[in-house]
């Protein structure tokens, strides 16, 4: 009986420890706040608290103006594509201390990135799509584009730990939520093994054959899917069964790539009448997509209908959304981030970059920090 009692006591103590750890993890997750992170032409990063509408931190970057902005999952390190798109740099978000640097060029081969930047799900490796040119004395030789993979532990003198070829016109790259797949988005969406680069599958875009629709034209520049793990982008297609004079001959839609399930879909929702640059999915209602350019639009993607559209103060390139789906943030282009109510599309706030410099096409990311 004593043995049974001691065994039971040990099991109860172990269960209590496990429960405490689990509750602590849940509390930590629940306590994490959303911050907005973006860059500017002044070669800086800006971290905003959107709930308070205040600037929290301003960081000067080595290498100048950033385009791609990729925070680590714990919100402590931020990696950027900058130095005229010729290098990757990483800094501590709390101190601004440089902790990572990698040149995309090697010898007589000049490498340039664009918007293909992704951090592995375990935060250990940084991936970049690199377009390469060999510089001869009298000519330039265009080489095969490749994905260069870096270990972030290599610090300020990082070199690729491996490379593999990637299709031309590849723009963005994104990891599946389990980290086993790398989606390379370009003329088509190729599914790659992130360790070897082997092509596992492909979703056809240019090579697709949707009834009565041309291959979609897609603008894939901004990465703003961290709240849902569903990457979205605007698409534009032509109806092949209608004359070009028909108002319905050109269609605007949304592409969705679910990084958890691996499912991809494309849905047209209106005759093309307005330009859309980027989009984001509502984490609280996944039937809702918000899009931005000169107007802010709310789309019911299940019903394939435009719900509401409002004019903006000026053009905005980037868009993101709060974790509770109640506020949408529009930024990029100029020096302000505007806040809108998702239910009414009424403007309810704004935040400004203190130096007045443009964000241009810099990504506007959500960072979760305790």
Describe the model.
- This protein is mainly β and 370 residues long.
- It has a domain at 211-364: YVTN repeat-like/Quinoprotein amine dehydrogenase (Methylamine Dehydrogenase, Chain H, 7 Propeller).
- 8% of the residues lie in helices and 45% in strands.
- The chain is built from 1 helix and 30 strands.
- The strands form 7 sheets. Strands 8, 9, 10, 11, 12 and 13 form a 6-stranded antiparallel β-sheet that branches. A 4-stranded antiparallel β-sheet has the order 3-2-1-30, with no helix packed on it.
- The longest helix is centred in the N-terminal third of the chain and has 30 residues, at 2-31.
- It is globular.
- Mean pLDDT is 92; it is low at 1-29.
Quick take:
The protein is mostly beta strands. The chain has one helix at 2-31, and strands at 33-39, 44-49, 54-60, 69-71, 77-82, 87-92, 98-103, 109-112, 117-119, 125-135, 140-142, 146-151, 162-165, 172-175, 182-185, 189-192, 199-203, 217-218, 230-238, 250-258, 264-271, 278-281, 288-292, 295-300, 305-311, 318-321, 327-331, 336-341, 347-352, 364-369. It has one helix and 30 strands.
